Amino acid sequence: MKYEMMCLVCGCVFESEDANESLNCPKCKTYRVEVNMRGV
Question: What angle do CA 38, 4, 26 make, to 5 degrees?
Answer without folding.
Answer: 155
